């Protein structure tokens, strides 16, 4: 049995230790927010935090997770959406939503280690593929999430509604 902590709860997986973490989370733990995209680590849809680092769950085995702390999108925030989730909605940086959990996890890991990331740092930390093309809005959303996390902006929903992004701003 492989033992690890998932979303602050100890878990034992009675699965082959070579099983990718992705399948243990989705099939055994029923944490389906972690998405299967490509299975080879290119799309980053399966991004989770392992000991605070954003890793692709399709590339890490259960054996490699033994004794480690894993956080999925379901465990990222407790009482309200994480600042990254709030900002993605406010900046209208979500289309179909399939890639969103992986993007949220990559952005949250970035903000946990860097409270004021530059545009270049955001782009480097979030290599997730999004077929809907939200990338121009994504940088603004992560910048806004950083401000929220630093307490420089009200929690979204507590103040006046933000203006929607302009079409010109989307063409970067």
From TrEMBL:
The keyword Transmembrane helix does not apply. Residues 150-172 are annotated as: Disordered. Coiled coil: none annotated. It holds the Pfam family Fer2_2. Keywords: 2Fe-2S, Iron, Iron-sulfur, Metal-binding. The keyword Signal does not apply. This is (2Fe-2S)-binding protein. PANTHER family: BLR6218 PROTEIN, OXIDOREDUCTASE WITH IRON-SULFUR SUBUNIT. Residues 1-76 form the 2Fe-2S ferredoxin-type domain. InterPro entries: 2Fe-2S-bd, 2Fe-2S-bd_dom_sf, 2Fe-2S_ferredoxin-like_sf, 2Fe-2S_ferredoxin-type, Beta-grasp_dom_sf, Diverse_Oxidoreductases.
């Amino acid at each position: 049995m492989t033992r690890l902590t998932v979303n602050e709860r100890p878990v034992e997986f009675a699965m082959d230790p070579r099983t990718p973490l992705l399948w243990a989370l989705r099939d055994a733990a029923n944490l389906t927010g972690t998405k299967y995209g490509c299975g080879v680590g290119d799309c980053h849809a399966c991004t989770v935090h392992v000991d605070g680092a954003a890793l692709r769950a399709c590339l890490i085995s259960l054996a490699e997770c033994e004794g480690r702390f894993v956080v999925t999108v379901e465990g990222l925030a407790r009482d309200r959406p994480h600042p990254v989730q709030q900002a993605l909605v406010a900046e209208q940086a979500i289309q179909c939503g399939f890639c969103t959990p992986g993007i949220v996890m990559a952005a949250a890991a970035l903000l946990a280690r860097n409270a004021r990331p530059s545009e270049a740092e955001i782009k480097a930390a979030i290599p997730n593929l999004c077929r809907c093309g939200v990338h121009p809005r994504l940088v603004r959303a992560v910048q806004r999430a950083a401000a929220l996390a630093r307490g420089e902006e009200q929690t979204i929903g507590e103040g006046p509604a933000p203006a929607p992004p302009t079409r010109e701003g989307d063409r970067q």
